[in-house]
Design goal:
The protein is an alpha/beta fold. Helices cover 34% and strands 26% of the residues. The protein contains seven helices and ten strands. A hairpin with a 2-residue loop joins β4 (63-68) and β5 (71-72). The structure holds adenosine-5'-diphosphate and magnesium ion. Adenosine-5'-diphosphate (ADP) is lined by residues 15, 17, 22, 24, 42, 44-50, 214. Magnesium ion (MG) is lined by residues 48-49, 162-163.
């Protein structure tokens, strides 16, 4: 049996504003096995980002626990968690190299070593010729690759990705999905990837957790039966389209417009 990498236990969270209480997550529990590529799929506003931020430790839950490698890490960051954000969140005044090296600055690694690791990670995402460029000189897709290199630089054992391709055009998104999968094949890590795209979820995931609208609960867990490496042609196969239809059916049941 594979060991459990991450355990989300009974996590609840509500936002309070002007006396109003907005329940976002209610008793959310999930176990993620080591090295799984897990996708959290759900309609916008269902609490995916909130959940991921709680898992990362940058946001506090009202109750519940986050257990990583059998250790309670609730409310703390670090411990091998690497986060990639939808809006890239790069420092505009730093070059690619310095953005990627940033995460290592707090770890006490020497400057020479920081740059060495950063260059390797920049190489992984194919941006070697842009290491001295500033974010504004890069396309959205390239900026997101910098974001991914930055997350990889700390050599995380679990990668948390919050709609990393949500802001990109479809073509760039398809290319980056393939790039991510090939990095993942080489540098196996546990991944939690958040998206609202059913197609993206099926293409990437070992397992898809479908969330209901707010307050986010698990509506369905779907194993993805397709072999790896995944290929672009898969997306038009009858099996792929059938699975997409089934998941859409489930999602639709939860959504009221
Ligand atoms: P998702 O990522 O699935 O789109 P979020 O986790 O970002 O959903 O947000 C879930 C709900 O919580 C939304 O209704 C959102 O408006 C609300 N929300 C998120 N962050 C805050 C916050 N800091 N303060 C108040 N409400 C928030
Ligand atoms: Mg979100």
């Amino acid at each position: 049996m594979t060991k459990t990498k991450l355990s989300i236990r009974d996590v609840s969270k509500a936002y309070r504003r002007d006396g109003d209480v907005l329940p976002v997550l209610e008793a959310f529990s999930l176990d993620v096995p080591d090295l799984e590529f897990l996708v959290l799929l759900g309609p916008s506003g269902c609490g995916k980002s909130t959940l991921l931020r709680i898992v990362d430790g940058i946001e506090a839950a009202d109750s519940g626990n986050i257990i990583l490698d059998d250790k309670d890490v609730t409310g703390r960051t670090g411990d091998g968690r690497g986060m990639v954000f939808q809006s890239f969140e790069l420092f505009p005044w730093r070059t690619t190299l310095d953005n990627v090296a940033f995460g290592l600055e707090v770890t006490g690694v020497s400057k020479t070593e920081r740059y060495e690791i950063a260059r390797e990670c920049i190489n992984l995402v194919d941006l070697s010729s842009f290491q001295n460029a500033y974010p504004h000189e890069l396309s959205g897709g390239m900026q997101q690759r910098v974001g991914i290199a930055r997350a990889l630089a700390i050599n995380p054992s679990i990668l948390l990705m919050d709609e990393p391709y949500g802001a990109l055009d479809v073509q760039t998104r398809d290319l980056l999905q393939d790039e991510l999968l090939s990095i993942w094949e080489r540098e196996r890590k546990t991944v939690i990837f958040v998206t609202h795209s059913i197609e993206e979820a099926i293409y990437l995931a070992d397992r898809i957790v479908v969330m209901s609208p707010r307050p986010g609960r698990i509506q369905m867990i779907q194993e993805v039966p397709f072999e790896r490496p995944r290929r672009e042609e898969m997306k038009t196969s009858p099996e792929f389209l059938e699975l997409r239809r089934e998941i859409w059916q489930t999602l639709k049941e939860g959504i009221t417009v």
